[in-house]
Amino acid sequence: MTSPASAKKSIGPRELTIMMASLMALNALAIDSMLPAFPAMAQGLKVTDPNQIQYIISVFLAGTGIGALIYGPLSDRYGRKPILLIAIIGAAVFSLACSITPDFEMMLAMRFAHGLLAAAMGVLVISVIRDQFEGDAMARRMSTIFLIFMIVPIIAPTIGQMVLLFAGWRTIFDLMAFMAVAAAIWVYLRLPETLAPENVIPIEPHALAKAWKAVVLHRNAAGYMIGAGIVQGALFGYLNSSQQMFDKVFNAADFFTIGFAIIAIGIAASNFTNSRIVERFGARRVSHTALLTFITLGALQLVAAQFAPKSMPLFLLLLTGNMAMIGFIGSNFSSIAMTPFGHVAGAASSFQTFVRTGLAASLGAIIGQQFDGSVFPVALGFLCCGLAALTLVLWCEKGKLFTRPGTTQPIPADPRS
């Protein structure tokens, strides 16, 4: 097992970042590529309630949330690389199982299992990066990873739509399996072990409970972890009902892939910007500013839903802005929550991912199931989630926003000085 120092010699930071982003992108592909196929899937699986097809997304997310508890402890004991390889191959197998499932109930079971395996890509990417970096430097790399990762939501619905032009919706799952196998080969050939020997932790229930308890009792870790999950819940609520909104609200089903890409560009652009500014201004200052803007835009979405409910340009403008704010909030909240736990990065990351994803999936399912032929439920979800996250941040920071713990010198005008 090589140390982090030797790992850096084996693989460059740029390749490591791209590799980790690609692994996370597999999960985005497993969600977004099938959105254009929802009508065809509902017909093929004999789903009569159009809102029920959203569960294909929700159960996958539930699987990733529960699976998050598994891979941190396993990787802390056996290393990041072998656990990653097993999980990626397992995800490919269950993706193929989804492509041949005969009915909706079996599809949901296979999607849950797919998510259970795919959870490793979320947990262990954070652990690998935490093995190498910490604090604002970690936030910068995570933001770069999220930037590359967010290219997938921009193009994934188009990929799904292209598949539908030449084959049935089941082929989308075959494509996901092929890409997972390709990623597994890359990890096997190029990724060294990043877990330092001195950080190997035996799998002991008492030790796991101690690490999870440390996260729960740490004021900042718990608050930012839950806050990130709540904000992500608004994103999942939009995601679950996005195809229906373009189809039923705006009568623009053919515009869905373009509209979805426009909105996704907002979050990709913000992650790119965050990677350039977070080390200068600090994760708290950037994310707090974004959260207040998120709430403001959520309120404007609610007003627009009442007075201009059929205006797709206004809908795209406001939602793109809010997606951009999620880009600033997500990576920074996660980095703040992980900073105290470098010595138990795997266990802490798995528990935090479990809480964030489970909370987000639940909130997203609730918001999505409220779809009533209007954009009002999504707008209300964004505003309520933003206010709840702000309440948690104020509790974490004891009422003081925009702080930068550990910084005693003024921030220079030139980040190179």
Automatic annotation (TrEMBL):
<dbReference type="Pfam" id="PF07690">
    <property type="entry name" value="MFS_1"/>
</dbReference>
<feature type="domain" description="Major facilitator superfamily (MFS) profile">
    <location>
        <begin position="16"/>
        <end position="398"/>
    </location>
</feature>
<dbReference type="InterPro" id="IPR011701">
    <property type="entry name" value="MFS"/>
</dbReference>
<dbReference type="InterPro" id="IPR020846">
    <property type="entry name" value="MFS_dom"/>
</dbReference>
<feature type="transmembrane region" description="Helical">
    <location>
        <begin position="251"/>
        <end position="269"/>
    </location>
</feature>
<keyword id="KW-0813">Transport</keyword>
<feature type="transmembrane region" description="Helical">
    <location>
        <begin position="83"/>
        <end position="102"/>
    </location>
</feature>
<feature type="transmembrane region" description="Helical">
    <location>
        <begin position="290"/>
        <end position="308"/>
    </location>
</feature>
<keyword id="KW-0812">Transmembrane</keyword>
<comment type="similarity">
    <text>Belongs to the major facilitator superfamily. Bcr/CmlA family.</text>
</comment>
<feature type="transmembrane region" description="Helical">
    <location>
        <begin position="108"/>
        <end position="130"/>
    </location>
</feature>
<feature type="transmembrane region" description="Helical">
    <location>
        <begin position="221"/>
        <end position="239"/>
    </location>
</feature>
<feature type="transmembrane region" description="Helical">
    <location>
        <begin position="52"/>
        <end position="71"/>
    </location>
</feature>
<feature type="transmembrane region" description="Helical">
    <location>
        <begin position="172"/>
        <end position="189"/>
    </location>
</feature>
<dbReference type="GO" id="GO:0042910">
    <property type="term" value="F:xenobiotic transmembrane transporter activity"/>
</dbReference>
<feature type="transmembrane region" description="Helical">
    <location>
        <begin position="345"/>
        <end position="368"/>
    </location>
</feature>
<dbReference type="InterPro" id="IPR036259">
    <property type="entry name" value="MFS_trans_sf"/>
</dbReference>
<feature type="transmembrane region" description="Helical">
    <location>
        <begin position="142"/>
        <end position="166"/>
    </location>
</feature>
<feature type="transmembrane region" description="Helical">
    <location>
        <begin position="374"/>
        <end position="395"/>
    </location>
</feature>
<dbReference type="InterPro" id="IPR004812">
    <property type="entry name" value="Efflux_drug-R_Bcr/CmlA"/>
</dbReference>
<dbReference type="GO" id="GO:0005886">
    <property type="term" value="C:plasma membrane"/>
</dbReference>
<protein>
    <recommendedName>
        <fullName>Bcr/CflA family efflux transporter</fullName>
    </recommendedName>
</protein>
<dbReference type="GO" id="GO:1990961">
    <property type="term" value="P:xenobiotic detoxification by transmembrane export across the plasma membrane"/>
</dbReference>
<keyword id="KW-1003">Cell membrane</keyword>
<feature type="transmembrane region" description="Helical">
    <location>
        <begin position="314"/>
        <end position="333"/>
    </location>
</feature>
<keyword id="KW-0472">Membrane</keyword>
<keyword id="KW-1133">Transmembrane helix</keyword>
<keyword id="KW-0997">Cell inner membrane</keyword>
